[in-house]
């Protein structure tokens, strides 16, 4: 029976472009996993979209002299274009304040809030909050910067320190400064609704204990925060931009839902919108979010662990009808290393990034997908090294994987008129190679099932190395001169190897493997069905025209120029 999966990619803020760190962190591993599941015959919903609320968008809008809607719509469109260009194929890419999504998302978010409120998990409190006298407004989270009280990082925001990952409140910051006017704010009283997260400490502890196979950095970080006890957290904000608080209370006037309350609900509302767009009832979302037979898996970056492993599950517990996430797959941050420079953090403000938009104007998507998977920061931070990217493209993708396929198919076109030759008598080397084809799909699948995408790609490349070793031992170009039957057997087995490599490489390199399917003259449905990876093409099967899959790159100076331009 096919399994059922609800897969989400973390919602990027719609106030900036995507860079390689974003892709390596959440979206590429999610896409690899989804492509594998679909090849395996499983039923999947793959959902993402932009996070349009919170203070980041109004801040960007103020800097750019535009409205928050204009900013969010611009970057939402750019992000979707980037994802499409990389072959990251969501079933739906929404936006929490985008036309066609905002209305349904507001309904879901307000209903969720009201349900938690009715269940008794909110406390209305008059509290102190930082107020910018010059701007004439209270300062939610990201309108405040200061020194983190935990790690003493000097550029921590009011909601979270991105250096140590600790959740913060603006009043906790040392030497707070308003990001609007760069003045020192004063403390004033305001009213907010606080969710009593502490009531879920024991339930969350049991929840984490029931998932011992989560990545250690996710599990250990979440357990560490839970050991301190979750504090109550305000889920409303004094802000014009956002979803209005759905309470019949004069103190709720002018207040909106906290961005991190409504953002994860976007996963659900986008799913419902997809069902509606497909001609079904929006209530069909429940098949994915409230069903015992559907696994819910979130792919995120390391800075979102607290929300996805603790706060979002607590929200679901408080609401009472949702299936808790089965997996929270988080990657660490990706650093960057340009030629002639030291390794450094990717920084939008400093321009130290490789932007997806610029990359796709210069290069094909698959080399980037390959390299980001090969260096995936699955257990610790790694770095995108421009020189290494070029070297691995040229020595691994081009010289090992692509060259094996091209030289075999080109040789076959000349020697056997572009048809699969007969498989004759098998010697030990032939039998060993065919046995590899039977075993490697399961090896790759086992690693992907455990979210070890780097190791899974390593298995595919191991089969590539074995294939090159096999053909170098057999030397069909010499067999052609002395024993055409043996030559045909060698080429046949190499073509069967290409057929297997095509299927198990497809989650990683969708564009190149589509070209291989054309060269092998196989329809995509058969080509990318996992349990057919070791199926053999029959003798006499007519192949397509061979073509070169990868280009040699000499791009260090281009990347350096892009970096210098910011």
Tell me about this structure:
- It is a single chain.
- With 566 residues, the chain is α/β, with parallel strands linked by helices.
- It folds into two domains: 4-121 and 196-331, 3-Layer(aba) Sandwich (Rossmann fold), CATH 3.40.50.620; 366-532, Isoleucyl-tRNA Synthetase, Domain 1, CATH 1.10.730.
- Helices cover 47% and strands 15% of the residues.
- The chain has helices at 20-39, 56-64, 68-85, 102-118, 201-209, 216-228, 259-262, 265-277, 286-289, 305-319, 356-362, 365-374, 386-415, 428-449, 453-474, 476-482, 484-505, 510-520, 524-527, 556-565, and strands at residues 4-9, 43-50, 92-95, 122-132, 137-138, 144-147, 156-157, 174-178, 186-195, 233-234, 236-238, 255-257, 294-301, 327-331, 334-337, 344-345, 382-385.
- The strands form five sheets. Strands 3-2-1-13-14 form a five-stranded parallel β-sheet, sandwiched between helices. It has a four-stranded antiparallel β-sheet with strand order 5-4-9-10.
- Helix 1 (20-39) links the parallel strand 1 and strand 2.
- Helix 5 (201-209) runs antiparallel to helix 6 (216-228), helix 13 (386-415) packs across helix 15 (453-474) and helix 15 (453-474) runs antiparallel to helix 17 (484-505).
- The two termini are 50 Å apart.
- The mean pLDDT is 94.
């Amino acid at each position: 029976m096919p399994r059922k999966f609800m897969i989400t990619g973390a919602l990027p803020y719609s106030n900036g472009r995507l860079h390689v760190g974003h892709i390596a962190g959440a979206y590429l591993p999610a896409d690899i996993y989804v492509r594998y599941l679909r090849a395996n015959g499983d039923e999947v919903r793959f959902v993402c979209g932009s996070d349009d609320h919170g203070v980041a968008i109004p801040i960007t809008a103020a800097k750019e002299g535009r409205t928050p809607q204009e900013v969010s719509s611009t970057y939402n469109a750019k992000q979707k274009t980037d994802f499409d260009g990389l072959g990251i194929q969501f079933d739906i890419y929404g936006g929490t304040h985008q036309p066609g999504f905002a209305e349904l998302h507001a309904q879901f978010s307000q209903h969720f809030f009201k349900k938690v409120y009715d269940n008794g998990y909110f406390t209305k409190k008059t509290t102190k909050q930082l107020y910018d006298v010059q701007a004439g407004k209270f300062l939610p989270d990201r309108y405040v910067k200061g020194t983190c009280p935990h790690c003493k990082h000097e550029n921590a925001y009011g909601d979270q320190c991105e250096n140590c990952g600790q959740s913060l409140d603006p009043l906790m910051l040392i030497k707070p400064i308003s990001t609007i006017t760069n003045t020192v704010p004063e403390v004033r009283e305001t009213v907010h609704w606080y969710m009593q997260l502490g009531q879920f400490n024991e339930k969350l502890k049991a929840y984490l204990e029931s998932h011992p196979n989560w990545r250690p950095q996710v599990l250990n970080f979440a357990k560490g925060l839970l050991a301190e006890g979750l504090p109550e957290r305000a889920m409303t904000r004094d802000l014009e931009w956002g979803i209005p608080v759905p309470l019949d209370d004069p103190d709720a006037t002018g207040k909106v839902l906290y961005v991190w309350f409504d953002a994860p609900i976007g996963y659900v509302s986008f799913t419902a919108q997809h069902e509606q767009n497909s001609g079904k009832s929006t209530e069909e979302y429940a098949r994915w979010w409230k069903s015992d037979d559907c696994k819910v898996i979130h792919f995120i970056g390391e800075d979102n662990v607290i929300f996805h492993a603790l706060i979002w599950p607590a929200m679901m517990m408080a609401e009472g009808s949702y299936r808790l996430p089965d997996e929270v797959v988080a990657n660490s941050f990706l650093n960057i290393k340009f030629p002639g420079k030291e390794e450094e953090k990717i920084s939008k403000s400093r321009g130290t990034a490789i932007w997806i938009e610029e990359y796709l104007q210069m290069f094909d998507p698959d080399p980037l997908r390959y390299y980001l998977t090969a260096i995936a920061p699955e257990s610790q931070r790694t770095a995108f090294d421009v020189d290494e990217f070029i070297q691995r493209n040229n020595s691994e993708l081009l010289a090992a994987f692509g060259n094996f396929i091209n030289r075999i198919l080109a040789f076959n076109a000349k020697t056997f008129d572009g048809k699969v030759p007969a498989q004759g008598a098998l010697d030990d080397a032939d039998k060993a190679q065919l046995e590899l084809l039977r075993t490697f799909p399961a090896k790759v699948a086992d690693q992907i099932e455990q979210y070890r995408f780097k190791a899974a790609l390593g298995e595919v490349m191991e089969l590539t190395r074995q294939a090159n070793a096999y053909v170098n031992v057999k030397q069909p170009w010499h067999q052609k001169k002395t024993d055409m039957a043996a030559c045909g057997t060698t080429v046949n087995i190499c073509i069967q190897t290409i057929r297997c490599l095509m299927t198990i490489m497809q989650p990683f390199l969708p564009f190149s493997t589509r070209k291989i399917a054309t060269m092998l003259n196989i329809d995509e449905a058969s080509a990318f069905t996992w349990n057919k990876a070791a199926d053999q093409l029959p003798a006499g099967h007519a192949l397509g025209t061979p073509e070169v899959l990868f280009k040699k790159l000499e791009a260090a100076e281009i990347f350096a120029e892009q970096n210098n331009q910011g």
